[in-house]
Design a protein that fits this description.
With 412 residues, this protein is α/β, with parallel strands linked by helices. It contains 12 helices and 14 strands. It has 2 domains: 33-174 and 306-381, Response regulator (Rossmann fold), CATH 3.40.50; 176-303 and 393-410, 3-Layer(aba) Sandwich (Rossmann fold). It has helices at residues 62-81, 101-112, 126-138, 152-155, 176-189, 203-219, 237-243, 257-269, 285-291, 311-323, 333-350, 357-368; strands at residues 47-55, 88-96, 117-122, 142-145, 169-171, 194-199, 222-228, 250-254, 276-278, 299-303, 372-375, 378-381, 392-399, 402-410. It comes from Nostocoides australiense Ben110.
Length: 412
């Protein structure tokens, strides 16, 4: 989850029918800025539909949440500027979930109670999504996450018998079932055969470590230590002391950068000089800032290819910059932009002859499942579970105080 907005290899220009690739205006935390042009048209016939955002807009993960919000704002503004949905203007309705499940549930309840909300982009955290999914589903409101990687969100708790829990839920990012094994293969093929694992007990971190461990051991590697931390902790002496005597050659961490950065710094200061590797939750400049100068050599995987490695990704970054947002698009900007555009694409069908937003909600669910277009992150389309069909990932390495691309490949 951090500094880049990853994009899938081979991603092409945005599909012309979306007409969503121009710049907007400054966003920041102004959740009403996309309402420009909404309401009655010159003839008094224009109706309003709202696309919500549920993400951490404050707190430790705000950098990621604000990138999501601004990217959705950009997509909405462009749709309005090009009259993408005749007779309708779109409006942004953003809610801060503070990366907390109960707060996220309240945010979802608020949006579900708004008769003009037609879809929601979010959440960032899989643990928050578990509480948000049923609330939005009960109101038949589509949810498209740019960042949730928990496998159970689309396939249920029984891995042997996958069943989609909510027909309203989709995502533009890939899952832990792919990201964890991708990291395991990278380390094993790099000659690292003994690792330690640590996770933060949250759905994202725990799922990531589980998927990593299963693949690493299947390849012939050994997990010499498996530890956990509490996400509200900032001192990890006991964990480092438990791991160090086992002499792992790398540490795989499941969680996000607010904990991963200090963990990396503290393990190096205590003589455990091995690379820390994590998932997209640590892929942000803040990780390097928190980990300090000893973070060189640390690794992270992230979904898609580097944003600036394709024409469509470069275009998105240029448009985002031109829009004047005060916060970077961060790890999930491209995925949030594509998530918003997938909803907008569906609305071209569902709102075409709709008298109201509520009347169009089921048609939006149906249309979203059939969406297919070339987006910032590559081909945007969903399988029968609501998962993205794109399985490109990238390994990044901290080099000279910056994240540098190490390897981009398709997981098979």
């Amino acid at each position: 989850m951090p500094k880049r907005s990853a994009v899938s290899v081979g991603a092409t220009l945005l599909v012309a029918s979306l007409a969503l690739s121009a710049c907007g205006s400054r966003g920041g935390s102004d959740t009403s800025s996309s309402a420009a042009g909404s309401g009655a048209s010159a003839g008094g016939a224009t109706k309003t539909a709202k696309i919500g955002v549920i993400a951490p807009l404050s707190g430790d993960l705000a950098a990621l949440g604000l990138g999501i919000q601004n990217s959705v704002d950009l997509a909405i503004k462009q749709a309005n500027e090009t009259n993408a949905i005749p007779g309708w203007k779109l409006e942004l309705a953003a809610e801060d979930d503070q990366a907390t499940a109960d707060v996220g549930k309240n945010a979802a309840t608020k949006l579900a109670g708004d008769k003009d909300v037609i879809g929601v982009v979010g959440t960032l955290n899989s643990s928050v999504a578990l509480q948000v999914q049923p609330v939005l589903s009960s109101a038949n409101i589509v949810q498209v996450s740019p960042a949730n990687t928990g496998v159970s969100l689309t396939k249920g708790e029984d891995a042997a018998n996958p069943a989609r829990p909510f027909k309203t839920y989709f995502r533009t990012c890939t899952t832990d079932a792919i990201q964890g094994p991708f990291a395991a293969r990278f380390l094993f093929e790099s000659g690292i055969k003994e690792v330690a694992t640590v996770h933060d007990k949250k759905a994202y971190g725990q799922g990531l470590v589980q998927a990593f461990t299963e693949e690493f051991e299947k390849l012939g590697g050994t997990v010499v230590a498996a530890e956990t931390i509490n996400p509200d902790e900032d001192k990890y002496d006991a964990v480092v002391s438990a791991i160090k005597p086992k002499s792992p050659k790398a540490l795989y961490y499941g969680g996000e950068y607010p904990n991963a950065g200090p963990l990396s710094q503290q393990m190096k200061s205590q003589g455990l000089n091995i690379p820390l590797m994590g998932g997209d939750g640590i892929f942000d400049p803040k990780f390097i800032e928190l980990a300090g100068s000893t973070s060189d050599g640390d690794l992270a995987t992230s979904v898609g290819a580097p944003t600036d490695s394709t024409d469509s990704g470069k275009k998105f970054l240029e448009e985002y910059k031109a829009a004047g947002y005060s916060d970077p698009s961060a790890a999930y900007g491209g995925y949030a932009y594509d998530a918003a555009n997938s909803i907008i694409n569906a609305l071209k069908t569902s709102l075409a002859n709709a008298a109201s937003v509520e009347d169009a909600r089921q048609a939006t669910v149906d249309a979203l499942g059939k969406v297919s277009f070339d987006g910032v992150t590559g081909k945007v389309a969903f399988d029968e579970f609501g998962d993205t069909t794109t399985k490109i990932l990238t390994v990044y390495k901290v080099t000279g105080g910056e994240w540098k691309t190490e390897k981009t490949d398709e997981f098979k």
